[in-house]
Amino acid sequence: MVIGRALFRVLLAAIRYGLALLIAFVMILPFLWMLGTSFKPIDETVRFPPTFIPEHPVGLANYVTVMTRVPFARYFANSTVTAIAVTTGALLTSALAGYIFAKFTFTGRDLLFFLIVATMMVPFQVVLIPIFLMARALGLYNTLWALIVPGLVSAWGIFLMRQNMKHLPSELLDAARIDGSSEMGIFLFVVLPLVKPALAALGIFAFMANWNSFLWPLIVIEDAPKRTLPLGLALFSSGFGITRWNLVMAATVLTCLPVLVVFAIAQRSFIEGITLGSVKG
Amino acid sequence: MEQRRKLARRDVLRGSLALGGLALSAGLAACGATPTPQVVEKVVEKEVTKIVEGTPQVVKETVVVQETVVVEKTVAVQQPGQKVTEITWLSHVYEPWNNALAAQGMQYMGLHPDVKIVYSYVPHADLNTKITTSLAAGSPPTIIGVYGPWMAQLIDGNWLDPAPDEVLQDLDTNFPKVMKEAATYNGKVYGYVQHIGIPAPIIDLDLYEADSVAPPTSYDELLAANQKLDKKDSSGNWVQFGTTLATSKAGSWNVIDFSAVLFSYGGTFLTDDNKKSAFNSEAGMQAATIYQQLAHPEAPSDAFVLGKSAMEWSGPWQKSYYASAAPKLRYKSLLPLKGPVAQIQGSYMWFWVVSAPATPEQKSAAWKFLGWLSAPEQYAAQYRNVGLLPITNKLPEELAKDEWAQTFSKALQYARVYYAKHPKWEQIDVAIGEEMERFLAKEVKAEEFLKTAADKVDQILAAS
Amino acid sequence: MGIARAHQMSVRFLSTTRAKRLLFIWGSLTPIMLYFLIFSVLPIFAALYISLHKWPLLGRAKPFVGLDNYISVINDPRFWISLKNTLYYAAAYMFLVIILGLAMALLVSSLHPTARSVFRPLFFAPQVTSAVAVALMFSWLYQPQWGVLNYLLRFIGLGPFMWLQSSKQVMPAIIITGVWEAVGYSMVIYTAGLTNIPTDLKEAGAVDGATSGQVFWHIVLPLLQPTTLFMFVTSMIGGLQVFTEVWLMSGGGPGTASRVLVLEIYDQGFRYFEMGRASSIAFYLFLLIAVIAYLQIRYLREQFEF
C-alpha cells in the first residue's frame, strides 16, 4: 500500500515536471529563434522552414556591429537612468496610493479609485498627441525628463498594489499606531516589507514598460544623443522591404537582457505563503 | 519593533547605493561614448576567375563590400561672425542609405560652411506618426522625406513650401518629365523626387532555363510561361510558383502591383476628375482575373529568394538583398510587361519637401541643398550604396555599363504614378487593398471584389 | 471664541491620530492626483474636445461639428465589424489568459524551489521576446504550405488551414498568439497573489481532512479574489485594446476579418490624419470598457467581499 502511494506520488511529480517542460519548450521557442538568428550570417536568416542553430555562426560579429554602429553605450545609459527613475517612482507612488486606497476610509475614496482605474480605459493612440502637447507646454520636449515624469505615477500600479494590500491585517497597523509610529513610518517599515512580492511584480512590469517603450521616446526626443536603446536600435529595422534579421535580432537580444536581469532579481521575492506569525487566528 | 526598523533602513540604504552605483556607471559610460566611423555598404561587381567545366574563366560576381568612411564631426570652417543657417532633415530608416545620406550632408556642409544640416531618421512605419506630431507641435523639420500619397493632404493644409524658380528650371533642364509632373499639385511644384519605387519583373534564370521558357514580354506570354512554371505535387500542394506578386495590403503593395496590370489593360482607379471610381470595368475584370493567377497568399514572403518562385516584382534596391541573402541566385530584371492596351508599370514616389513654417533663410538653404543632393553624382552614390535608381536624364557614366541599372532606367519610360492625387487616397488605397485580400484568398469572385471595392471608394469620394 | 482658545483647540486637534491620518492621506494623495490631472485627465478631456470637431491633423480648418463624428462612426459598418472582432478577441483572451496564467502559477509553485526559479523565467520568456520576432515566428507557424502547425495537424488528419489568410481562422490564430504572449504576465501576477495566502491556513485545511482540490477551491481561490478581480479588469482592458499583434500579423485582414477598434483609431488618426473621428471611436471604446468593468466589479462584489 505504501509503495503504491509512493509510486502514485512519483507519477504525479513526473506529470508535473513533464508538463512544465512541455510548456517551457513552447514558451521559449521564439526566443531561441531570436537568439540563434543573432548568430547567423545574413544568408542564413532567410530560411524556410526557419532554423534555430546557425550552420555557419559568425560568433559575436553581429553584436559587435550593432554596438559599434550606433553610440550604444550612450543609448544604454539613457535607457538605464530613465527606467530606474521611473520604476522607483512608480513603486513608491503606487505602493503609497495603493495602501491608502486599501486601508483607509475617507469621503470620495471609491470614486477617486474608480477614476484612476478609468484612466487606463482610454487607448494611448488618442491621448498621445494631447500628452505630447502637454509635455511640450511644460518644457519637457526633447529632454530625458519627458521620459521620466509622465511615468512616475501609474494607474495600473496603484490598482495592483491596492489589491495586494487588502489582506493586510488592520490589527497589525493599529498596534503600530499605538506604539507611537507615524503613518509614514508604518507605511515604510511595516507595510512595505509585507508586500515585497507584489512590489517585485510591479517592479518587473514597470521597468519592462519603460525600458521597451518606443513610441513615446520616438515623438518626444529630437536629438540623437538623448535616444533610448529601443529607439537607437530601430536603426537596424527594415527599410526598403529588406530586413537584416541577424542584426535586428542581435539588437533585440541586447535590449531584452536587462529585463531578464531585473526579472531574476525580482523573482527572489516570490516566496509563496508567508506565515504571519504575529497574528493569531 | 526597533530591529525591524533597523533592517528596513539597511534595505533602503542598500537599495539607494545600488541605484546610485548604477546611475554613476551609466553616467561614466555615457561620457565615454564618442562618434565612430560610419560604415557604408556598397554592392560592387568583381571579376573573379572561376573554373567552369574544367576551364578557368573570368566571371563577374556581385558582392557586398563594406567601406569605412570616417565622417568628421564638423568639417565646416566658419568665418568669424558668419551667420549659420540650421536646417533639420528627417527621413526613414535604411541603415546603409542613412549613412550615405549623412555622409553627403557632411560633404555639403564642408562646401557650404554657412549651413548646418542636422539629419535624423525614424523607422518607416513610424514616419507619419513623427511627421504628424511635429506638425501638431508647429515645428516640423525643414526638409522631410514624404511618401507620395501624403502630399495632397500636406499641401491642402499649407504645410509645404512651393519650389522657387531656380528649382523649376533645374527640373525642366536636368530631369525626366515624370519627376516634375509627380511633384506638381494644383499647378505648383512642391519637391524633388527622392526616389522612385518602380517594381519590375525579376526572373529566376535557373528556373526559367530548367523548363526552357523564354523571358516573357507580355502578360499573355507570362501566363503561358506559368503553365510550365507553376508546379504542384500529387496531393495538390505547391512546390513551385510561377509568379508571386504581392497579396497583402501592407505597404499598399498589392494595389501597387495590381495597378501595373490594370493600367496595361486600359483601366484606371479613378475617373480623370477624381470624382468616381473607374476600375469596376471590363479592364478591371480582365486585370483581376489575371492577377489572381499571379498572386498566391499560400506562398511564403521570401519565396523568390528561397528559389520557390520563378518571378517576383521588385525595385532596384533588391539587388543588395539578393547579394547578401542569396548570393548564388541567378536573376535578371525585365522591362514592364505589355498588356493589350499599354505597357505601364504602376510606381510610387518619395519626395524631399520643404516645410512652410521654416524661415526664408532656412527655406532657401534647404532648396539649394536639395538641388545639390539630386544631382547625378549624388544619385550615383545612392545607387552604389543602396541600389536606388538615379532619376536624371542621363545615367551617370559609371552606370552606363550596369545592366541592372540600365533596365530599370529604361523602365522609367513606362512608369506611371499609381495613386490619384486625391487627399483621401490613403483611405481609397486601403479599401481596394482590403477587398483584394479577400479576393486573392478566393473568398469572393472577381465581380464581387470589383463591385464592393468600387462602392466603398465611391462612398469615400462622396464624403470628401 | 478667543484666539488663544482657538489656537489651543487646533493644536490639540493636530496632535490627534485622526488629524495625523488625514494629513497622511491627503498629503500623499494630492501630488499623485495632481499628476493624474496633468498627464491623464487633461489629455482625456483634450481628446474629448477634439472629438467634437472635424480635426484633420494636417489641415488648417478645424470646425466644431458637435456630435457629427459620433453619429458617422455609428453609421459606418467598419465600426461594427471592428467592435464584433474586438469583443470576440477580448472574451477569448481574457478567459484563456486568466485560467492558463493561474494554472501555470500553481504548476510552478508545486515544483521544487530550485526548479521554480528556473521554470519561472522560462515561462516569462514570451514577455521578453520582441513583438516583431513573435509575429514573425507565428506567421511561419501559420504558413499554409510549409508551416509547422499544418504539418502537425496533417498527422491527425486535419487541415490544411489557411490561418492568417482565411477570414474565419485569422481571429483564432491571433488570439492564440496574444494569449501565448500574455500568460507569463498572468502567471507573475497570480504568483504574487498566491504569496498573500498564509500557509497555516492551507495547513489547517489539510489537517481538517480536506483534499488539495478542496483546499484550492474553498481556501485558495476565494483568497485570490482581489488578484482575480485585478486580472479580470486588466486583461479585459488589454484585450479590448489589442493592437500590436493584429497590426504585425494581419493588418486587419484578410479584408476586414481581423479589424479591431484600436486599429480603426490608429488608421483614422495616423493614416488618414482625422483626429476628430479617431477620438470619437476611442470614446466609444472607453464607454464599452467602463461598462464592462463596472459589471465585472458588481458581479465579483456579489460573489465575494470586495
Description:
The complex is a heterotrimer of chains A (281), B (464) and C (306). Chain A has two domains: 2-64; 70-279, MetI-like (MetI-like fold, Orthogonal Bundle). Chain A is 68% helix and 0% strand. Chain A has helices at residues 2-37, 42-45, 61-69, 72-103, 109-118, 124-137, 145-148, 155-165, 170-178, 183-194, 196-212, 215-220, 229-233, 245-266. By secondary structure, chain B is α+β, with helices and mostly antiparallel strands. In chain B, the strands form five sheets. In chain B, strands 3, 4, 5, 8, 14 and 15 form a six-stranded mixed beta sheet that branches. A three-stranded antiparallel beta sheet of chain B has the order 12-9-13. Chain B has a two-stranded antiparallel ribbon with strand order 1-2. In chain B, helix 9 packs across helix 10 and helix 15 (425-440) runs antiparallel to helix 16. The relative contact order of chain B is 0.14. Chain C has one domain: Orthogonal Bundle (MetI-like fold), CATH 1.10.3720. Helices cover 75% and strands 0% of the residues of chain C. Chain C is built from 14 helices and no strands. In chain C, helix 2 crosses helix 14 (275-303), helix 5 (113-128) packs antiparallel against helix 8 (170-195) and helix 9 (199-207) packs antiparallel against helix 10 (212-223). Chains A and C meet through helix 1, helix 4, helix 5, helix 6 and helix 8 of A and helix 2, helix 4, helix 5, helix 6 and helix 8 of C.
